[in-house]
Amino acid sequence: GDVTLTGLSVTDPHAGLSTITCAPIAQGGTMAPGDTTSCTATYTVTQADVDAGQIDNTGTATGTPPIGPDVSDDDPLSEPVAQSPAIDIEKSSDATGSNGVGDTITYTYAVENIGDVTLTGLSVTDPHAGLSAITCAPIAQGGTLVPGETTSCTATYTVTQADVDAGQID
Q: For an engineered disulfide with 39, which of 16, 22, 149, 155 has Cβ 3.0 to 4.6 Å away?
């Protein structure tokens, strides 16, 4: 503008933002026409930000002219946040190698969210015919795994004559 502004105020309503500091003209300072100042604040990225894939916020500068109402301008910013979703499953069984017809084998599926994004709708499946329903705990099927969280799932299978004849269960 073409008039001196007093009471410089730079705000940003983003929750978790540090105090905004400005230099060379501080908060509350006076800006002559053509003056500039640079203001900074810090913010620690949260899991919710990573899950959203971006951080949205708006900075607003306000000043008071010699005559008339305050003037202000705002500028929104959407900052992308990198996401690396990943899941890991390890399958094991309690089979002894000497299982016979009618023996029950328990399969265990260790599942871990090894990425940095919260995963929803957990689904553990296994196409093996004759397998019981797969149950999981502490995070159930359909549940949510936050990064680093694990759950253990199990299912059972009864050995058939065809398995014995084949010499193995795939």
A: 22
Q: Torsion-angle region of residue 97: left (phi > 0), alpha (psi -120 to 50) or beta?
A: left
Residue 162, classed as helix, strand or coil, is: helix
Separation of alpha carbons 87 and 150, rounded Å: 10
Cα distance between residue 100 and residue 126, in whole Å: 22
42 Cβ contact list (under 8 Å, min separation 6): 17, 18
Q: What is the pLDDT of residues 108-163, one digit of tens each?
A: 999 999 999 999 999 999 999 999 999 999 999 999 999 999 999 999 999 999 99
142 and 123 Cβ atoms separated by less than 8 Å: yes
The continuous run of DSSP H or E covering 76 comes out as: strand 71-80
- CA-based nearest residue to 121, from 135, 107, 137, 140: 140
Residue 2's SS3 state is coil
Which of 131, 134, 138 is CA-nearest to residue 123?
134
Q: Kind and range of the H or E element at 113?
A: strand 104-113
Q: In which residue are the tokens 């253990």 written?
A: 152
